[in-house]
Every structure is written in structure tokens, then in C-alpha cells.
Amino acid sequence: MKCKKCGQRASVNMPQHNLGLCREHFLEWVPEQTERFIKKYAMFTHEEKILVAVSGGKDSLSLWDILHRLGYRADGLYIALGIDEGVDYSVESQRLAEKFAAERGLTLHVVNVQEQTGKTIPEWAETSLRGRQKPCAVCGLVKRHEMNRIARDLGYDVLATGHNLDDEAAVLFGNTLSWSREYLLRQAPVLPGTPGLARKVKPLCRFYEREMAAYALLRGIEYIYEECPYSAGASSIRYKELLNQLEHDQPGAKLAFYLKFLDARQQGLFSAQEEKQLELHPCPNCGQPTSAPGLCSYCRMVGEFGG
Ligand code: AMP
Ligand code: FES
Ligand code: ZN
Ligand code: ZN
Predict the structure, then answer these.
(1) What is the mean pLDDT of residues 191-203?
(2) For residue 218, how far is its CA from the centre of ligand 3 (angstroms)?
(3) Residue 93 CA, closest ligand 1 atom number
(4) Is the CB of 168 inside a 6 Å radius of any atom of ligand 1?
(5) pLDDT tens digit string along 40-58?
């Protein structure tokens, strides 16, 4: 395949878009597309302060790199989860996030879960669920809470995460299998902010995972290759494999699945009343919006089991 822009040999072939690009033009195309999605979904403006949640992985570091190249005011947030038994997963991802920031003179906030709550994520999983479950549920809860807290306390307008199309399509697939309207309702490129809660955006939601891997590689971004050791066997990984099989036979299927959901949403898949259910009330302890009656799940967990 040849580069569509200059006719040289393409470095990245994207049958899903019927497009091939050389290194130089691919590295231009990704931020151009990102800017297009940011505008299309009204994610944020150049005047707003953006907090990028960075895990040390390819997607979130690439996102930060792209926003920086596009001239947005974006700082980073790394949450140290303490997942290091035998693997150094958190230590190594923190090192890479810090290195990325230092090399570009960017501001990175680091929050340590153990210092904040008295326990690491694996320890929380042991205590609050008595080892019955993987730490992922607790981890998601704590990460969400900390991202929201830092964004609010430090006055950011927007919280951006590195979820890519493969992530979004896998979640959509899972939510569709169970026809979970409540979860489907919360799946969007932009979740509006409420008092005390920053708007949440996913600027990479239309990029295939392999496009982001190519971007990180061609930009020379050093990122952690390993997945979280607890992610093995997660249903989202099975759904990704299934969707990859489909994509193999039918290039573009993954993107169509996701975009058709967004279209259906716009055309009234959910009633106005359902959309209103998204409204939440503030937790009496931390002030973060919650759908639970009384304390939010985070405060309940830390209150019950915290030291
Ligand atoms: P994951 O749930 O691991 O697929 O991550 C989804 C997104 O959440 C990433 O692209 C990051 O934006 C964010 N994220 C995940 N882990 C962390 C972390 N330890 N610190 C900050 N942000 C994170
Ligand atoms: Fe949280 Fe794996 S990243 S449990
Ligand atoms: Zn070219
Ligand atoms: Zn709370």
C-alpha cells in the first residue's frame, strides 16, 4: 500500500479506513483526527484546563502527547495503585509517566493510594471483598474517586482518559449482551460535568488500539507493555478477541458497531427520562456525586474497612 498523501511506501496500513500512510503523514493524521473528534463531540476548548489520567500505557501517554502537540493546556495525573507483588507493575508505570512528563517539561500530579487510604489496591481487594474477587472492581472504584477528586480540588474543567475504540467497543459489547440500559446510558465520548464533578472525555474513542500502538511506536514514546497482572481472564479481553475476529473478516466492523450505537443514542435510543436518571446527588462525606442513597461506594468502603 502507498501513502495516500505522498505516494511513498505506507508504514501504517488501515484497511478499516481504506487508508495507508507513511510515518510522517500518519503522525500528522492522528492529531488532526483527534482535533476533529474533540470539536465534533464538543469535548473542550483551548481555554479550558484539562487533566489527563495517565497510566503509563500507550493510549494515555499518546493522548497527552497529542494534546500537547495540539496546544491544549493539559496536565497529567498518575494514580499509584501499589500493584507490585512480583511484577513491579505500578513502580514501572509510574517511572515511565514521570519520565514522559520530565522530558517535555509537563506537570504530572501523582496520587498514592496507600498514602491516601492506608492500603494498596491488592490490600483493599483482600479486606473489602475477602479475597473472593479480583481487585479490578475496587481498583476501578478508587481510580474513579481519585480522578474526580483531583480534577475538582485542583480546578480542572475536564478529565480526559485514554480509552480507545477497542476498549469502548468491548464495553459496549458486554453491555449489549446484558442489555444493561443503565450502563449503556453512561457510555459516551463525553459525560457532562455537574457541580463538583468535572466533565469526562475520551478523545481517542474512535482510534483502533493498533493505531495508538503505531502512534506511540512511531513517536518514540516509552510506555509499559505489560497489562495489569489482574487483567488476565477479564471478560473485556474475551470480547476484544471476539471483535478482532469479526474485524478480521470485515474490516471496519468494530468502528461501525460503536458509531452506530452513538447514532442510535442521538436519535433517541434512551428516553428523556432515562437521560435524566444520569443526575446524581452529592455524597454527604466527600461531596462527589453518587447514585447510592447516602454515602458513595468509595466512602462506604473506606469507612467500613479503613484503618
Ligand atoms: P484501563 O481501565 O486500565 O483500560 O485504563 C483506562 C484509562 O484510565 C487509561 O487510558 C487512563 O487514562 C486511565 N488510567 C488507568 N490507570 C490509571 C492510573 N493508574 N493512573 C491514572 N490514570 C489511569
Ligand atoms: Fe486496577 Fe488492574 S489496573 S486491578
Ligand atoms: Zn506520506
Ligand atoms: Zn463519598
Answers:
(1) 92
(2) 14
(3) 19
(4) no
(5) 999 999 999 999 999 999 9
pLDDT band at 131 (very low <50, low <70, confident <90, very high): low
Model pLDDT, residue 127: 83
The Å distance, Cα 296 to ligand 4 centre, comes to 4
Q: Which ligand is nearest to the CA of 295?
A: 4
pTM of the predicted model as reported, rounded to 2 decimal places: 0.96
Residue located nearest, by CA, to atom 8 of ligand 1: 161
> Is the CB of 79 inside a 6 Å radius of any atom of ligand 1?
yes
Candidate from 87, 120, 224, 230 with most ligand 2 atoms within 8 A of CB, to mutate: 230
User: Does 274 score more than 90 pLDDT?
Assistant: no
**94 Cβ closer than 6 Å to some ligand 1 atom:** no
- Pick from 218, 200, 171, 198: which is nearest to 31 by CA? 218
pLDDT for 130: 58
Which domains does the chain show, CATH number per domain? 40-275 (3.40.50.620)
Enumerate residues with CB within 5 Å of ligand 4 (an ion): 283, 285-286, 296, 299
- The ligand that comes nearest to the alpha carbon of residue 11 is 3
Report pLDDT digits (tens) over 70-127: 999 999 999 999 999 888 999 999 999 999 999 999 999 999 999 999 999 999 988 8
Report the distance separating Cα 96 and Cα 125, nearest Å. 25
